[in-house]
Input
Amino acid sequence: MLSSELLTTVEKASKVIGKTWPLYSFVTSNPLTGYESSHFKDAVASARHYLNAKVFPEAIVFKTALENGEIDTNILNNLLKENGWNESPEFYLDQMNQNGVEELSHERVLDRIMSKWLAAFLDEGQAEWFMPGKKAGFYKAWRKLAKYDKSVKINKTEDLPETSEEALAQVLSDYPQEQWTEICTQHIAALPGWTGYINYRTEVASGWQLQYPIDLVQYLAVRLSIGKNLNINLLDKANTEDKPSQDSLKYVWLKAWERSWQHVMISAVATPEIVKESNETPDAQLVFCIDTRSELIRRHVEAQGNYETFGYAGFFGIAMDYIDLKDKITRKSCPPIVGSAYKVTESVMPGKDVEIAAFKKKTKLTKFKDRLLKRMKNVLPSTFGFVEGAGFFYAFSLLGRTLKSDSLYRRKNKKDRSFENITTPQINCAGEENSINGIPLVEKVAIVKGAFDLTGWKTFAPIVVFAGHGSHTANNPFGSSLDCGACAASPGRHNARMLAQLANLKEVRDILAKQHNLSIPQETVFIGAEHNTTTDEIVLFDAAVPKGYNDQLEKLKQALKRAQQTAASNRLGVEDAVTLAEKKASNWSETRPEWGLAKNAGFIVAPRSSTKNKNLQSRCFLHSYDWKQDVTGAALEGIMQGPMVVTQWINNHYYFSSVDNNTFGGGTKITQNVTGRFGVLQGNGGDLKMGLPLQSISKTDTELYHQPLRLSVLINAPLDRVTDILSRNENLKSLLDNEWIYLMVMDANDNDRIKTYQSGMKWSLSSQNQDNPVYSTAV
Output
C-alpha cells in the first residue's frame, strides 16, 4: 500500500505532464493541463524549467506577423510602454533569442533504457512476440526480466523489492523528504510523451490497461531503481537557466498579437451585414459541427440557395461510445470531459440481410489477408523471402496509388458509403448494448430537445441535415487528429445518424409538442450526413428517407456538390480543386492532406446573423445561440461548460505544438515510426511524441502556418447572464483569471457593446467602432 506521503508526492509531480492520446483516438488537449489552475505565465515557466521546452513563439515568428500586419503596431507600442519597454519594436526583436537548453545529466542513459522497456510493455499488438509477464504489471514484469538487460547491471531478481511501492520508497529514502517531489517531477518530465501515455492509460482504465496495468508509481519505481543501481545522481540541479525578462518581453508581444486578432474578429461580428428577415421556410437546414473547417463549408452551402445552417458541437449532444461493426472495437464518440452514458451499435435494415452477409464476409476476408501479410512480413523465417518475392508487386501498387490516387479514392469512398445504406444505429444505455428496447423515451426526448435548445431553433424546413465530419487520408498515423474533436477524435457521422433517427421518432415528436411546446412539422424529415473535411464533400445517409422526398433530396445533393466545388477551390486556390483534394486524400506520400484546425483562434457563440456572409478564414469555431430563446441561461451554461472548454484544449494543443514541435509536437512525418500501434517515435527510439506533426502546423520546416494565439471567445448575450454563469463555475473563472482563454461579451442589454473580461470578474469596455479599443490593464 502506497504511503500517504508517497501518494501526495507522485500526485504533485504528475502535474508537470498532460495526457498523450493514442493514435487511434488522438484527442487534441492541453499538454499542460496539470497547470491550468496556475497562471499561464507560471505554467509555461514550469514547462520550460522541467521539460527544457520553448514556450513562446520565436522572434522570427513575431517579426513575420508584424510585417504581415497581423500585429497592430499601435497595440504593440502601447503594450510595450505599459509594461516598461520604451524602445522600438525592432529593437526588441533583436533582443529576443530563444533560451539556451542544458540537458539534464541523467537523461540520456535513463531515457534510452526506459524507452526500450516502455515500448515493449505498452505494445498493443504490433509486435509478434509479447513481453512475458505483462499481466502482473509493469514493475513486476520488468523485475523478472531485468537481470537479462546488461545495461541496468542487475544480477538477481531477488536484489529488487517485490512491489513498486517498496521499490520507490527504498530509492527515495536515500534523500530528504522535502526533495521527493522534485526528484519525481524531474523524472516524470524527462519522458513527457511516455509518462503522458501512462497518465492516459491510468485514467481511461479499460482495454489494455485492465489486462496489463501500469501507472506512474511503477514507472518511477523502475526508472529510479535503474538510476540508483547505475549510481546516477537522481536529483539534477542543472535545469534550464531562467530568463524572466525574455519571457516577459515575449509575453507582451504575444498579447499584442492576440489583441490585434481580437480587433479583427470583433470588427467582423460587431458590424454584421443586414440580413433581411424572411418568413419563407428554408428549403433545407443543415447543422454542422462548430469545428473551424465548418465555417468555410457553411458559407458555401448558404450561397447555393435558400439554405440555413447552424453550428453545434459535433457529438450532437449524445454522450456515447460507438461499437464499430467492422472491427468490433469500442471507441469514445463524445468529448473526453464527458462520461459516456450510451453505447451505439449497428443493426441491419429490413430487407438487407443479403447485403450485410456479404459485408461481413468481405470484412472477414480483409482481416485474414491483413493478418497473413503482417505475419509474412514480421515472422523471422519468412521475412527476407517475402520481401524479395513481394517487392515487385508492392512497387506496382505504390505506383498505381501515386499516379491514380484520385480515382482510387472515389472507388474506395463509394464502397465505404454502402455501409450506412444497409445498417441503422441502435442506442442503448452503457453496459446494455444487447437491449431490445434501447434507452428510455424520456432520454430520447431530452437528447433531441437539447439540440434545438442550444442552437436557438425557431422553424423547421422539410429537410433537416445533421452533418458530422471526418477526415479521409491515407498513410497518416495522425489521421484521427483530423476527425471530430467533440467526438474524442472519432468521425461524427455515427452521432449525426443517431440524432436523426431519434428526431424522426413519432413518440419523441409527440412529447416535444405536448410537454415542451416544440412542434416539429409532420413533413420534416431528419437525415444524418458526413462532411469530409479533406475534400469538402457532404454525403447524405438517406437510405431510409421516404420516396416522396426524392426531388427535394436531388436538388439538395446538387447544391451540396456545387458547394463542394466552390469551397474546395476557395481553400486550395486552384480551379479543379475537388480532383486535387481527392488526390491529397488518397496519396500515400502526402504530408499535408489538409490543415485540420490550424490557425484556430476564435470561438463565437451567437446567432448566424452575426457572422453570415463574413469570411472568417476558417479561424473561428461557430456555435449557434440565441439568448432570447434561452430564458433560463441553461443552454449558454452548457456551451461554456462543454464546447468552450474543449475548444480551449484544441487551441492549446495547436499553440504548444507550434512553439516547440520537438517537445510538444510530433516532429517531422518523414522520420516517424509507429510503435505499439498507439504512438510514434522520431527515428527508432526516444520519447513518445505527444502532439501534432510539424507538417500539420508549418508551411515548411522553418515557416509556420498556424498562428500560435490563445483562444478568444465572443458571446452575444446579456452580460449579467454570463457573469452569473461564471460565478457558479469556478473552473471556468479560473481559466479566464489565469489567461488560458480570453472572453468578450457582446452585451445584449447594452446596445451590443463589447466588454472584455479582466481578472477578478471585472470587465473593460472597448469602443463601439473598434478603431481604438480601450485596454488599461498591464500584463
User: Anything to note?
Assistant: The longest strand covers residues 463-470.
